[in-house]
Amino acid sequence: MDIMCSFAHIAVFLVFAVVNSQNTFTQPIIWQDLADIDVIRVNETFYYSASNMHFSPSAPLLRSWDLVNWEFFAHSLPTLDKDYPKFNLEGTSAYNQGVYASSIAYNSHKGLYYWVGCLVGTDKTYIYTARDPQGPWEEASVISDYCYYDDGILIDDDGAMYVAYGKWVPNGADAKIWVARLTDDLQHDVAEEVFQSDEEIQYIEGARFYKINGTYYIWLVNHHSEFGQGQIVLKSSGGPFGPYDSWRRVLGSSGNPIPGAGSPLQGGIVDTPNGDWWYIAFVDMWPAGRYPVLAPIIWDDDGWPSVVFDGENNWGSNYPYPLVKHETKPLARKDDFSELGSQYEWNHNPDNSKWSLEEGLKLQTATVTDDFFLARNTLTHRILGPNSTLTIELDFSSMKDGDMAGLAVFRYNADLISVTKEENGTSLQMIHNIAMDATDGWHTVEKGEVVASKPLYGSRTWLRAQAINAGNQVVATFSYSTDGIDFLPFGDTHHSLNGAVYFLGTRYGVFNYATNEFGGSVTIKSLEITQGE
Ligand SMILES: *[C@@H]1O[C@H](CO)[C@@H](O)[C@H](O)[C@H]1NC(C)=O
Ligand SMILES: *[C@@H]1O[C@H](CO)[C@@H](O)[C@H](O)[C@H]1NC(C)=O
Ligand SMILES: *[C@@H]1O[C@H](CO)[C@@H](O)[C@H](O)[C@H]1NC(C)=O
Ligand SMILES: *[C@@H]1O[C@H](CO)[C@@H](O)[C@H](O)[C@H]1NC(C)=O
């Protein structure tokens, strides 16, 4: 046995393994709840738009240069329509309404980026445009008598704009898809019903609209065998209005690229500067959220796309990198609030007069309430899977009696730890089991109870939550520290509810609200997120 020779073999193998792991990515591409993806490329940059329902700013926008590493950098909808008190948490709420699957596009004829989306809860479609995708995004049109439900935008070669969309129907086999043309001033022009589902196809929605090599395609999620799996594509033998006289199945039940999660569906496709095509879909992993997965697409000679599956004929857990790896800003990091990054979203529209950046994030109380789900200006961050922590350093020296400020983990139920200021002193409390009613429009039915309490002294504390995403459950625990180094567990465990169709995953929330009167404030000196396996 030639020892040198076997060392050489091992060395070759190690080099191969290192190269291989550097050139391979693992699903999901982002461990955060970012569903209903639309993806486009403008020159070398990819843009990813997602839904976020009742959170604000809305329609988060991420960017990438390799399709695998993404960074948050803007929102296409700066605010949910402020004319609706429910979007502002003004005594009422719009949980699970707002931004559903919406769409982005770049129109090179006009040098403008477009975002088009129906706000569920308004029956109106909103169109926002920007010269620079970083913003400002400005309202360009409101189409008040059409909800382009789950829309996909197409910019044709001549710059004309079309939208493919659906309408929620109770019976899947009756589901229809329409195409509308927009006028130059972005109003509804003509629309035609272009496709109706049937017993074989079943429920369709989530339209994406493409023109590829001169052929028009509509890409649709299709809940054919059970809710949450399946994708088809329609092909037109004519123009944008069809006829869409042929279709193909792209995905059925196509494996579980993230162990413990569902099968990929919905999303969009995009080509690279090299001419390769890729598909970003999402998988259900409620109550944690819906996570994006990426796979290559190939086309046959008749112009039909198919996903490149793994050896088991499933969407793979790993694929080679689409392009040379290009790092982006890390998703888990420490923030001292020199700016308010777009990785955060407020729970509903905030009262912008009640927060500021002054050596940290200063939160004045913005609502007098005893209901966490009706308190304005809760700043949220998606939990990161599979496990993550969020820690805040909280200066509580300017609170008023009756104020509550701290850290929550919530979906449609919440648990929180609160610095609670009362006449006789300040305490750290854990409020357990706050919940909304899942069957009657998402209103608070349980305001929670204090299950742990201890006096707090000084003016500063560190609060931490750790959320573990264990497939079909999210479990979170809380702790606190008086020096930022040693943390002591505090209170009970949070379990995110998952008993109804509530589209969003679990988030962390930083809150400050009054139960007596306005005037108090706290400052979040820093916020740190860590992500673990
Ligand atoms: C894309 O690249 C072309 C060619 O370099 C350039 O003229 C154009 O301005 C670029 N478009 C954008 C939106 O950056
Ligand atoms: C478009 O047509 C070109 C030229 O025939 C071909 O090379 C390319 O593969 C086609 N692309 C798609 C997505 O079908
Ligand atoms: C203040 O009084 C309330 C009601 O008696 C009590 O529950 C709370 O623990 C007290 N707080 C402090 C900090 O002692
Ligand atoms: C969370 O992740 C960290 C870092 O990977 C790991 O050490 C820890 O065991 C994980 N905790 C749980 C509960 O999975």
Brief overview:
The chain is mostly beta strands and 533 residues long. It has 1 helix and 40 strands.
Describe the protein's architecture and organization:
The protein is mostly beta strands and 533 residues long. Helices cover 4% and strands 49% of the residues. The protein contains 1 helix and 40 strands. Strands 25, 27, 28, 30, 35, 36, 37, 38 and 40 form a 9-stranded antiparallel β-sheet that branches. Mean pLDDT is 94; it is low at 1-19. It binds 2-acetamido-2-deoxy-beta-D-glucopyranose (4 copies). Residues 42-43 line the site of one 2-acetamido-2-deoxy-beta-D-glucopyranose. The site of one 2-acetamido-2-deoxy-beta-D-glucopyranose has 4 residues, from loops. Belongs to the glycosyl hydrolase 43 family. Residues 334-517 form the Beta-xylosidase C-terminal Concanavalin A-like domain.
> What is the percent of helical residues?
under 10%
Overall strand count: 40
**CATH-defined fold name of the largest domain:** Tachylectin-2, Chain A
- What class do helices, strands and sheet pairing give? mainly beta
Distance between the termini: 41 Å
Would you identify the CATH architecture of the largest domain? 5 Propeller
Number of individual domains: 2
Which CATH top level class of the largest domain fits? Mainly Beta
Average pLDDT metric: 94
Strand fraction equals: over 45%
Q: Over all CA atoms, what is the radius of gyration?
A: 24 Å
The stretches of 5 or more residues where confidence is low (pLDDT under 50) are 1-19
Q: What spatial form do the alpha-carbon principal axes imply?
A: globular
Largest sheet: 9 strands, antiparallel
Discrete helix count: 1
GO molecular function, one term: hydrolase activity, hydrolyzing O-glycosyl compounds
Pfam family, one: GH43_C2
Domain Beta-xylosidase C-terminal Concanavalin A-like: 334-517
Keywords: Glycosidase, Hydrolase, Signal
